Amino acid sequence: MGTRSEPYEAPAIQTFATELTEWRLQAGLTQTALAETLGYTPQWISQIESAKSIPSKEFAENLDTYFTTNGLFKRLWKRIIDTRHQAILPPGFTAYQEREAEADQLRAFELTLIHGLLQSENYIRTVVGHGQDPDTAEQLVAERLKRQEVLTRKGALDAWFTLDEAALRREIADPEIMCEQLAHLLTLGERPNISIDIVPLSAKYYPGLTGSFNLLSILDAPDVVYGEIAGQGMLITEPRTVASFAVRYNKLRGDALRVEESRTLINRIMEEYG
């Protein structure tokens, strides 16, 4: 977890930033003055206070010593480390996930990977574990499996998933895991609240090639759209824009195979992996 252009949304990082700013202001110090006193750059202090950088243990200890806080900043730093798996979530995703848990309907399109709600445990581990330490990876796996309960719980949401065939053929793990993942798709597709269809590679150009997105419908609340670009998330609430995504989803489904034809394709790809 390093410096980023947008603030981290993780509460622990936000709290550290807020506390540092408050203690600095109470001491009557500018960011430059504090930086010079502690031996850091003003840019570093600014990044921490804007929640765009993760403080180090040494920095936290230096703050405790200087402000005589009885270990406050070190405790806040430890909280950041203990919840570091939350800090790597894309901006906007936390707000989206809260809405997803309350949603009645989901329409989702995925271009390059199996949708997160449809991923098997080993597939999840391959995706979220990339570049992460083992503890963080396992926390992320557990959270995604918990998130998937929106599809299987009592009163589960109704979900329509459209996947590009390329997502099924992208061999991000060994063939055994890919076969397991495709079998998982077939099993989920048997549930009455889940529809899974595939846009075949033969479709050539179609509206979905512009990118993946999720469209949520919540009873007595406006629909919202969530999408990601290069790891940056965006939650869209503007009604006209959200409506345009609904139109886009309807259009791209016109290029998808029927559900039973999609199941046949999934089985065929499984055999190729097998």
Automatic annotation (TrEMBL):
Domain HTH cro/C1-type: 20-72
Top-level division of the source organism's lineage: Bacteria
A Pfam family the protein falls into: DUF5753
Record-given protein name: Helix-turn-helix transcriptional regulator
Organism: Actinomadura monticuli
